[in-house]
Amino acid sequence: MIILYPECSQETIIEEYPCKLSLSFLINLMGLLQCAVASLILEKPSALNLQWNMQLLLIVCIGICMGAERFIIIMCVKEKGAVYVSAFSPLSTVIVAILEPLLLHEQLTWSW
């Protein structure tokens, strides 16, 4: 089990932890637990009901994609370092701004 201290960086944890896939799983599991606790506290019980429909399929697909994304980020941090990965964060915002109107037919708005 990893004990996180303020002086630990993401890069040192990735270097020391032997299995990258289980590290990705643990990160996603902790996020799931935090979201579950927040949902139970903040949401009404009727909002937490799920049916077997497109909403549940979307939740599963997003979970798979987020897990794959986390694994890719961990591998990139291992290979190139944390600074290299954070340099591409603004690029992902630009890619989303380009693809969202094309794929989801959302209107792109500009604000000052």
TrEMBL record:
Which membrane topology describes this protein?
A: Multi-pass membrane protein
Regions that span the bilayer: 21-42, 54-75, 82-104
Location comes to: Membrane
Q: Which InterPro entries match?
A: EmrE-like (IPR037185), WAT1-related (IPR030184)
Cite the entry's keywords alphabetically. Membrane, Transmembrane, Transmembrane helix
GO cellular component terms attached to this protein's record = membrane
Recorded superkingdom: Eukaryota
Give any GO molecular function from the UniProt entry. Answer: transmembrane transporter activity
| Name under which the protein is recorded | WAT1-related protein
Annotated organism of origin: Zingiber officinale
